[in-house]
Design a protein that fits this description.
The protein has twelve helices and no strands. It is mostly helical. The longest helix is centred in the last third of the chain and has 32 residues. It starts with a helix and ends with a helix.
């Protein structure tokens, strides 16, 4: 593990330049450029807010603001978008860079780190946009929003650990890459993004709590919308799970490193 970290540090300039090149290539022919990374989740939040809050007259307990539902959705999508983008990109990172892995000699851990850096920058831009929207609505986040300094790296670590584990396995079993988008669609509705946790029937609440993104999304909403500190115990459990997934990912990565190039 320490060898991978030291190798990534030696190639830190390669990682930074790759992140910049990825942003440039992704939006090279787009007039709005990186704004699409912000507009897509904001448009999704606006759609859900209109359908659920306006058409279906859905309400959230503990929120009296007329914009409360939209704020609740944006906070949840902020966490979810970072988690999902990291997983989706890690799923195919080795397959997409097969030619690079075969032609160049460099620490392979650099590739998921480029993915993590790109996803983090995009998510921070989305955070800035959401804070600006909150301010325009007259609901500027309070000091508890500083919890995001811990919550964002936690979400990234969880997505990176799970995504890298699946990415290594996907090299040898390509069905994983086909199944995960479906699994993530189900997981979205098992996460309190478009509904409050208090609305979940007690009988199925333990089942939903098994989803590691459940406490993470709730913590984002607590910090940004409700103006309170996240619950410590669920977040600590997620942190332990994220570390375990990262350890498993590094173990698989080291064991399968040589075979991956042959399989690609």
């Amino acid at each position: 593990m320490f060898g991978s970290i030291s190798g990534a540090w030696r190639f830190r300039h390669f990682i930074a330049s790759s992140v910049r090149a990825e942003f440039a290539n992704r939006f090279a022919r787009s007039r709005l450029g990186g704004l699409w990374m912000i507009l897509n989740p904001l448009a999704q939040a606006a759609m859900f807010a209109f359908v659920l809050a306006t058409v279906l007259s859905a309400r959230l307990p503990g929120l009296d603001s007329r914009y409360g539902f939209a704020m609740f959705l944006m906070a949840g999508l902020l966490a979810w978008s970072l988690f999902v983008e990291t997983i989706n990109r890690c799923l195919t990172v080795f397959i997409d860079n097969a030619s690079l892995l075969k032609k160049m000699s460099f620490p392979r851990i650099c590739l998921p780190l480029v993915v993590a850096g790109s996803a983090l920058i995009g998510n921070l831009l989305l955070l800035v946009a959401i804070i600006l929207v909150f301010a325009l609505l007259g609901e500027f986040p309070g000091p508890h929003a500083l919890w995001l300094v811990l919550l964002i790296p936690l979400t990234l670590a969880l997505g990176l650990g799970l995504g890298l584990t699946l990415g290594v396995l996907n090299v040898f079993l390509r069905d994983i890459g086909q199944v995960m988008p479906i699994v993530l669609q189900f997981a979205f509705w098992f996460t309190p993004i478009v509904y409050a946790p208090s609305l979940i029937p007690p009988g199925i609440r333990p089942l939903l709590m098994a989803n590691p993104m459940f406490p993470v999304v709730t913590a984002y909403q607590d910090a940004l919308v409700y103006g309170r500190a996240p619950q410590f115990v669920p977040i600590a459990a997620v942190a332990i799970a994220a570390l375990a997934l990262l350890a498993l990912a590094m173990f698989l990565f080291r064991r399968a490193g040589a075979e991956m190039v042959d399989a690609l």
